[in-house]
From TrEMBL:
It comes from Bodo saltans. This is Cellulase-like protein, putative. Keywords: Glycosidase, Hydrolase, Signal. GO terms for biological process: carbohydrate derivative catabolic process; lipid catabolic process; polysaccharide catabolic process. Residues 41-325 form the Glycoside hydrolase family domain.
Amino acid sequence: MCRVVLLVIALLFICNSVALPHHTLGTEPISVHPNTLRLVDEHFREVNFHGMNVVVKSFPWIPDLVNFNVETSFNAKDMETFQELGFNGIRLGTMWPGVEPERDQYNMTYLQSLKQLVTDAETYGIYSLLDMHQDVMSEKFCGEGVPLWAAIPANDSLFPWPMSPIYNASVSGIPTPEECALQSWSSYYFTQATGSAFQNLYDNNYGLRDSWANFWENVALTFADTGAAVLGYELMNEPWAGDAVANITLMLPGVADRVNLQKMWDVGAESIRSVDESHAIFFEGVTWDWVGVGFTDVPGGSKWRNKSVLSYHFYKPPDFSIEVQFAARADDMKRLQCGGFLTEAWVYDWAVLDKCDAVAQSWLLWEYKPFFGPKTGFSNSIWNSNGTLNVEYVSMLSRTYAKIVAGTTLVQNFNNVTKAYLLVFKGDKLVTTNTTKIYLNEAVHYPNGFDVVVSTSQGSDYVSWAHTARNHIDVQHNLAVIGENSTVTITVVPSA
């Protein structure tokens, strides 16, 4: 009970705290380091992102930007909360129905509203991954993702055959919420209607793939000038294999990636690169690629490897082992020579956060709030219904970590019991500035203060640290002395 009370007091401290520093990154978008395959800033320093998904799966397809609400907003108060908790990233739903509700009719008001959210978030040191989110493709199939006009199943597909009798017999062709609730939302992927509609998209039947590519071109044209504020463009969330009812081999790991998705991602990348060569493209395989993705190259080909990031998720099911999943993704990154990013996992999965620290991977968890309308796969929010923060989640998620590392991370670990933090990195000849930036939640984890010890393998004279602002310390080392065969060690522990 004492610990809970202490956490509540710590959270209340937010209201009376001195303003935190805002910007972390520079002006240029992130890239992929050519040797380590980690995400880096314009100075080749490693960058780590901790944050959450902000995805509105129904109209108006965007959070409330003005009025705070524990379920529907992402406004200044939300951004202040992110900043306080050390969250520096969001995966922002960039919804095709919001951009193109009618074919070839683009909603520039929606795009500009998204851009305003992105630019506002950057002032709080929060960077946005633009995600074309979908789950089961369309409201026609008890999901969401593409505009109604783009969800075209085979002529003989009656949803949800072969699972059960027809749902969408109404004029609108959209099942009722009561009908959709008869089965788990993810089971609707296995209907012929859903699979054949995905296949029509992948095969460019009715020009659907071209329309999807044009959607991305319009998004990229809108955000091309946003610099570091945008982490990149995620081509599609959790893409389905295609018409697996007609071709069951698509369910084999790697097959759908190779047969359907590789061409799709190349087409999308071509459209994006026609207007934006600076921002990274994030791409996914199907969610059951336990033995490795089936792609033979990154979207657009090898010249874009430094701007390509493999997006992946971890859930049980379909995943069954953290070690297997992360090892497979590490092999994928090495083979494709691209970066990697965990863009979804449960909010409450502590072990995943520790694993990301161990393998130097960023994370964006599912999800910040439930937002509007019916949900396909809502997890837990960090907000309680009474408008207070969930202290258990805050203690777990607001971790001590390095936002920026001026070298190559060898060890990063935060012990959420003892609150001890360790970072060890070696020098990198490509790094052009010497500042490493570490976030720590003083109120939650170090209410009685903290002690920092810094050293190098060349002696203590070549490194120093400073408490630059509340919840932040900077560590600077001598670039001329600390080379690729030398290390810097930083420890943070609670004061006795």
